[in-house]
Amino acid sequence: xxxxxxSSFGFRGEALPAIAxxxxxxxxxxxxxxxxTAIHAAGGVITEVRDVARRRGTTIVASQLFYNAPARQKFLxxxxxxxxxxxxxxxxxxxxRRDVRFTVSNDGRQSLALPAxxxxxxxxxxxxxxxxxxxxxxxxxxxxxxxxxxxxxxxADVGTAxxxxxLTVNGRPIRDAGLxxxxxxxxxxxxAPGLRPSLLLDIVLPADAVDVNVHPAKAEVRFRxxxxxxxxxxxxxxxxxxxxxASAALxxxxxxxxxxxxxxxxxxxxxxxxxxxxxxxxxxxxxDEADERPVGVEDETESNAAESWxxxxxxxxxxxxxEPPPTQHVPPLLQLRRTYMMFEHxxxxxxxxxxxxxxxxxxxxFMGMLERGEAPSQRLLFPLTLHLTPAEGEAFEANRDVLVxxxxxxxxxxxxxxxxxxxxxxHPRFDAERCLxxxxxxxxxxxxxxxxARHERLAATVACKxxxxxxxxxxxxxxxxxxxxxxxxxLPAHDVHGRSTIVQLSWxxxxxxxxxx
Length: 517
Hints:
The chain has 517 residues and is an alpha+beta fold. The protein folds into 4 domains: 15-114, Heat Shock Protein 90 (2-Layer Sandwich), CATH 3.30.565.10; 120-241, Ribosomal Protein S5, domain 2; 249-287 and 332-372 and 472-517, MutL, C-terminal domain, dimerisation subdomain (formyl-coa transferase, domain 3, 2-Layer Sandwich); 377-423 and 430-467, MutL, C-terminal domain, regulatory subdomain (Ribosomal Protein S8, Chain: A, domain 1), CATH 3.30.1370.100. Helices cover 29% and strands 24% of the residues. It is built from 13 helices and 21 strands. The strands form 6 sheets. It has a 5-stranded mixed sheet with strand order 7-8-11-9-10, sandwiched between helices. Strands 14-21-17-16-15 form a 5-stranded mixed sheet.
């Protein structure tokens, strides 16, 4: 048990003699400032030992590699390739030991100068530049006995630069594709297919929960319970991506808010009714708007949509509305171009894309319905009749059970004709006929194999088609309700297509553009 708890890495005693046997080696060492010792060796034979004056520490110089083994020397790669290997190793060591100062020289010219860093972000900025560090959000979370910290790339920035990955377990750099996949799973529904984020993560867990002696170079480890570790990594990265800091930024990011701008208290969007506004609009139907629908420009995915249809009133009286929760703190919101919501933050101006925001809200709600197996729906006074193409009919058959769990009650009516008798009602402007038709058209030809992936695909498609559109005018109460609902989602900064939902413009950036800096 005592040996398991040893956290130091020790030193492989044969490593230094093995290096000395194929080169000319000089080792200088001193336990304290002042008197030290220098050892010279050639081909593994000690040629000189003498006293030297030096600072505390150890310096090892290896030169003329394989001078005494020509057969090995000819297998060395070119100087540039070997130098890249040296840089890779030093980069790994520098990321692992941020408290140590490193300098690396090549042919007498200093190539790397890294001062001791206070954080992983500082070391990343020193290695690759502040532009890379600015694209990363902080990860810091604890799951039981597992602590996951580090940096994860902001979804809006994924694909704009080279991907970088780095993992440590209890301070030891490792390779582990499973942990990277777990971290990437946290980006699900925020990235376009094929994009993979940069991830630099430190994982700390009890010594008896991991076996480090499964690889000759200690580059791989074996976990006692891999699923628990992967789940901790995924949840930690997802939580980091759910913060306000994970949203996109215009210009240079100059702040790192410790908490989201919205309240994280629980809020039921359908029942949210600000005390200073009458119940109306998107989440509360107004009786005097039964025949009105704001006219606006729709995004490109709706350009070939069918004529607008407004669902008839349900055949049963509406359920009584419970008391709303306490009013959440919501900043004053302004709608721009009937597409964006804008508000002032302590450190800048924030824009929210209303379609992307509502799409994120509906996607997470639909996924919750599919997981619980329950979905509220409204029966129509007059059933809808939909005539589908063969491809759309095939998509309906493949996704029939999922549509039912989302609240659609649909029956075949001969051939490729469907009879829709009940529909979900995510908001009063919801166009059930158009949403169902466009969703089936988008799913036509889809060959997603697993049921969970199919659920995600359908939920994302229906959420996109059901969400409010660019051009829809929102009342102040609607904007407040959408703002609170977005704050309740797990990944508010991005919609299901990987587009940014929130964009920030800092005060310093505004001042720079106006020539005030």
